[in-house]
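User: quick one, sequence for these tokens?
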């Protein structure tokens, strides 16, 4: 680019901005003009600059890519397919994050050097505040597809380029990335880029849909299209909701669909579809909804990530996030350390982690290090050969480490492991071999280790009761489980445990409002284990169909202050509504179904009658009539 061309471009930009208010027609689209104005007046950029874009240092680029690792893995395939369709015309494909940094790209080797000089390379930054008007920056600002063609660019360094870009949205509706296709040379007429722009838009949509399906594996997902043949390959609408019917994710088309028909995005799937018209959970067949003129397919949750509760209930977000992170760590062959109070659900967490990991089809061997007598702990862990000692089995015994070969070894209460065993365990983990007692040969093992403790291992190391080298070997990543008193899914846990008792006894029991409030507000020093025992006791002594305060152990009401409970009163309609809620243990979906109303209508009636929903952080106060 010559200095003469640079001066011409500066004059062109200045003239257009100066005359924009009086001109009948503009030489550039309105969004380009607005971006030029911001670039000049707000960011004080030089339109004559011939300098290329800023390039991130390698370690910063690596951090950016690691933040969106799952998304990148899914997007890469479509980026390659798109590049395969445009590479013969010398186009480069780029993917940027929401800061405008290029985190992935595809370019032919023959033009790689020229593209790099033009700024089309990994790590280049295309934000409007730094580079002015470009296709990437325009999408970041306007969140709509665009072609920025040649002299549409604000800076002279880029006026030979033609760039078409489209937004990629996350399942929650937030902008996730920008997909861009650029060429060093092209015809002057911007209409020459129309087909390229459509290809970019379609590829961005395909990436969105693929990432949507990946991100919603734990939810119900409905794919829909007006044409049956496109439901699976290119669904137009995607909806995802949890087991309580709460909408959790929508693709952009589904979001527009709801806004057009409801004026907003509803909270619950029951407001969108008649659930009776949807296929059964086990039915994966194609279905036609005549009232919506849509062909659909419904997919059930694959592997819900929940701790100590069934697939039909929610989970504390902190624990769910910890589990997701732990799966990623474990699948990178790093040991996991789980810390939490006694009874907080550490073994549940470990089992769910194993089930969600790449070793799910291999053994899960759980060991309580505090429960095995010290005299037997070595033979239990490492096994022994036939006749290794007096009283040994004539066939020998495979130790726990060998039983876990290929899978996961869960060491509960690792802080109580004797020092001598710590030394042998460290050697086995370091060398990947185990030596059974009395055996002539060492045997190879391939295990992933998950440890759990309620004690502070760092203090044990300082006191000399736990080996420092083993501590660092086992604590590849630490995850702290909140105690039950701090969890926000106590209602879901209580309902799950009562459902479990109903399956075992054949008797289904409800919960009075007062009893449920006591359970929700108790401090639970024994955590999940104590709650399970309390509910089992209540189910055993309950003589009616509803568990009441008198059915709970006296230690609960004596052991901790409880918030005052609003007892049922008021009109017959209010009392009937409370009765249904109590019968269904305050589950809104089941109560609404019995009443033959939607969940939204149920909540309106609850608010109208001033009923306090147990377990909710805020309530509606309405004077009773």
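Assistant:
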């Amino acid at each position: 680019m010559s200095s003469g061309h640079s001066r011409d471009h500066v004059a062109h930009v200045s003239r257009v901005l100066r005359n924009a208010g009086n001109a009948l027609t503009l030489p550039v689209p309105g969004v380009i003009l607005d971006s030029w104005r911001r670039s000049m007046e707000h960011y004080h950029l030089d339109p004559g600059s011939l300098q290329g874009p800023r390039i991130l240092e390698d370690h910063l680029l690596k951090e950016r890519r690691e933040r969106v690792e799952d998304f990148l893995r899914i997007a890469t395939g479509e980026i390659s397919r798109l590049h395969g369709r445009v590479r013969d015309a010398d186009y480069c494909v780029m993917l940027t994050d929401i800061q405008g940094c290029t985190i992935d790209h595809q370019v032919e080797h023959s033009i790689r050097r020229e593209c790099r000089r033009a700024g089309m390379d990994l790590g280049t930054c295309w934000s409007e505040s730094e580079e002015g008007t470009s296709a990437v920056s325009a999408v970041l600002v306007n969140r709509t597809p665009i072609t920025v063609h040649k002299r549409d660019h604000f800076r002279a360094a880029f006026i030979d380029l033609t760039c078409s870009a489209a937004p990629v949205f996350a399942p929650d509706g937030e902008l996730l990335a920008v997909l861009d296709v650029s060429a060093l040379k092209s015809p002057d007429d911007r209409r020459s880029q129309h087909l390229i722009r459509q290809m970019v838009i379609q590829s961005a949509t395909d990436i969105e849909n693929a990432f949507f399906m990946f991100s919603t594996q734990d939810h119900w997902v409905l794919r829909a299209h007006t044409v049956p043949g496109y439901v699976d390959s290119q669904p137009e609408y995607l909806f995802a909701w949890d087991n309580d019917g709460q909408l959790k994710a929508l693709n952009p088309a589904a979001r527009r669909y709801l806004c057009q028909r409801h004026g907003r995005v509803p909270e619950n799937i029951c407001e969108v579809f008649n659930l009776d018209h949807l296929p059964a959970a086990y039915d994966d067949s194609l279905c036609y909804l005549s009232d919506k003129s849509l062909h659909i397919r419904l997919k059930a949750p694959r592997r819900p990530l929940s701790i100590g509760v069934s697939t039909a209930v929610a989970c504390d977000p902190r624990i769910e996030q910890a589990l997701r992170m732990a799966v990623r760590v474990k699948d990178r062959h790093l040991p996991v350390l789980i810390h939490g109070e006694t009874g907080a659900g550490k073994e549940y967490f470990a089992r769910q982690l194993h089930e969600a990991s790449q070793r799910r089809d291999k053994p899960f061997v759980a060991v309580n290090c505090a429960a095995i007598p010290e005299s037997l702990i070595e033979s239990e862990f490492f096994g022994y050969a036939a006749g290794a000692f007096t009283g040994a089995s004539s066939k020998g015994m495979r130790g726990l480490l060998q039983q876990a070969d290929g899978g996961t070894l869960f060491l509960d209460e690792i802080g109580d492991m004797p020092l001598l065993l710590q030394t042998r365990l460290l050697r086995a983990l370091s060398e990947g071999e185990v030596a059974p007692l009395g055996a002539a040969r060492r045997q190879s093992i391939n295990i992933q280790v998950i440890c759990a403790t309620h004690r502070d291992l760092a203090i044990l190391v300082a006191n000399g009761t736990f080996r420092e080298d083993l501590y660092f070997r086992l604590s590849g990543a630490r995850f702290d489980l909140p105690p039950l008193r701090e969890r926000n899914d106590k209602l879901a846990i209580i309902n799950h445990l009562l459902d479990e008792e109903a399956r075992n006894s054949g008797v289904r029991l409800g919960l009075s409002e007062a009893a449920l409030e006591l359970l929700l507000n108790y401090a639970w020093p024994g955590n999940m284990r104590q709650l399970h025992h309390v509910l089992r006791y209540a189910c055993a002594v309950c003589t009616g169909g509803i568990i009441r305060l008198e059915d709970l152990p006296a230690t609960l009401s004596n052991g901790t202050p409880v918030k005052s409970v609003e007892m049922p009163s008021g009109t017959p309609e209010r009392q009937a509504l409370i009765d249904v809620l109590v019968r269904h243990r305050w589950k809104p979906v089941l109560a609404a179904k019995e009443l033959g109303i939607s969940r939204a209508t149920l909540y309106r009636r609850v608010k109208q009658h001033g009923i306090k929903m147990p377990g909710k952080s805020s309530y509606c106060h309405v004077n009773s009539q």
